[in-house]
Amino acid sequence: RTQAEMAHTCRGTINLSTAHIDTEDSCNIVLSNGGRTYHLKANSEVERQRWVTALELAKAKAIRMRNNQSDDSGDEEPASQSDKSELHGPLKTLSSKLEDLSTCNELIAKHGAALQRSLSELENLRLPADSGEKIKAVNERATLFRITSNAMINACRDFLDLAESHSRKWQRLLQHEREQRIRLEETIEQLAKQHNSLERACRGAPGLASGTTSISSTAKAGSVQSAKGEASDEDEETEYFDAMEDAPAFITVTADPKHHRRSGSNLSGASEGHPEDWNLEDSVFESSNQSSYNESTGKDLLPRKRRRTRIPDKPNYSLNLWSIMKNCIGKELSKIPMPVNFNEPLSMLQRLTEDLEYHELLDKAVKCESSTEQMCFVAAFSVSSYSTTVHRTAKPFNPLLGETYELDRLEELGFRSLCEQVSHHPPAAAHHVYSRRGWTLWQEITIASKFRGKYLSIMPLGAIHLEFHSSGNHYVWRKVTSTVHNIIVGKLWIDQSGEIEIVNHKSKDKCQLKFTPYSYFSRDVPRKVTGVVSDADGKAHYVMSGTWDEKMECSKILHSSHGSTSTEGKQKTVYQTLSPKVLWRKYPLPENAENMYFFSELALTLNEPEERVAPTDSRLRPDQRLMESGRWDEANVEKQRLEEKQRAVRRRREAEAVEALEEGKDYEGYIPLWFERKVDAVTGELICVYKGGYWEAKDKQDWSMCPDIF
């Protein structure tokens, strides 16, 4: 045992490294260590000798281990190839000696066996009594000799194994130190090259100016920030980013922002963008996303209606697994009701509508004259939809077939939204949003999930379409995979991972966003998102960076250059950018949000009762309303009733399909009420799009076509 293990041994344990081993007579052994003594008795002298030999070997091993532990702190690791060869030399010598000892052991065993056979033959002869006792004693001595020689060989073999294991350990440590040294040398060399090139660029920039403006001799020279992240007292205006296809390490240099604005066409020799395009006073990028839309543009919009700011606190109900299991006995798996304990009082249609919480990003994107600048706002909007999921581990209610949800904020915020559950198996929801500020968004999302033991992967399938009315820019992207961890044991937490490719199908601009999955061993910021906006020719214009639960920033690219080649054979691209602008920042959660399912301000209003909505609206769903009120037992009963009612409708529809088939007629199945299926001209996919009629029916309050689902 090691010293660390000896501190946690059982009561009555003796440390062999400091123990005394004595023999009292032919069969007794005495073990003593300080104030503790054990007396052991063997059946015979031969067995006693075996025990003594084994204990002595164990004692020697314990002493060696103790000495090795005390010497490890002062030993130095081998640092050269000569040290490695010096290790192999003694090992080869030890191996050859061990082979010699093994040969001797075989000879001893062979001759010892022959000697014992001879002694056994002598015992069978008729000899005087004294002679028989002497022969017996000689036989025992021969047996002891053979045991001792075997123990010696085993000890030699153990020694060689120990030497080999330590040799492998030393070799691994040596190789690790060499690799660390090589990586450090490569990093220092790369930083030195980049630093030199940046200094040349900073020195050469004044000479590339138009000449009408002289640069002050006190212009700040570029300097690389220290690896420790120490703050520089110079203005930070220029940054360098590694391209997405390789390590996401960022290198930042400082420069005078006034110089960039004065120099006109500076960096024209190698620049891919002009600093004057980054208008710090008038650009759309400068408008704060924290201000309300009414304050910035909404003269034609009415003041916001006062909405509720809280809901009843979540009850502290313990989940009784037996109460769930006993209701499942004798039932089909598809008929097992899941209690509302796993839910939050919102439906999936309302969660889909919650993506519009930061709609002002699209309102700002309408003002952009450049399609690449507009792409930055669209990318920030696509990331903002995940900000509400960081604490929301509860499951939304599965919508019933034909269930709808409207969010009419046309007079307050300039948009109106409509969702409908268009399929139940597989579950699919269609969504359409119109904004009088100049954009339309539509999508059909199908949820696919896979349970993988410790976590649940949720994969939204389907494309999201966004079109701006004035420019005709049509953007398409898809959602990333959401993963719910610790499904069985532990605290639930959610992560987003994967890539989003946003494509402008008119200008062919692209934005590739990468959601970095969480890793315990990673040094990156958790929930990190990075990306690059490029035009149809593949030229990069903006760098996107941030986190999906906090904020997204955008940096205009001035210059790009190829850096060193990575260990994977990919060449890095270094982007020189202006200082980043914050496009989106998450709103703080309301007070007491932890007791209100971590709902945001918008989420608190989504299930607020409203008049004049369709009878199929999620606000009128009784089980969801009961759960929000804290009456969970009643909500479970009501939820089971609604699900059974939906199954009865499905069975009737299946019977109608069979009847139509027998009569040779076509049966269309369920037809969505407000949406229709069409082949999308951009993606070529079959998608449900809004066919109109809902808002007209609401104005007339004519809901006669709506099914009775509640």
From TrEMBL:
Residues 64-89, 203-238, 255-310 are annotated as: Disordered. It is a peripheral membrane protein. Keywords: Coiled coil, Lipid transport, Lipid-binding, Membrane, Phosphoprotein, Transport. GO terms for cellular component: cytosol; perinuclear endoplasmic reticulum; plasma membrane. It is found in: Membrane. Residues 210-226, 285-296 have a biased composition (Polar residues). The keyword Lyase does not apply. Signal peptide: none annotated. Residues 1-60 form the PH domain. It comes from the Eukaryota. Residues 174-201 form a coiled coil. GO terms for molecular function: cholesterol binding. GO terms for biological process: lipid transport. Belongs to the OSBP family. PANTHER family: OXYSTEROL-BINDING PROTEIN 2 (PTHR10972:SF194), OXYSTEROL-BINDING PROTEIN-RELATED (PTHR10972). This is Oxysterol-binding protein. It comes from Chloropsis hardwickii.
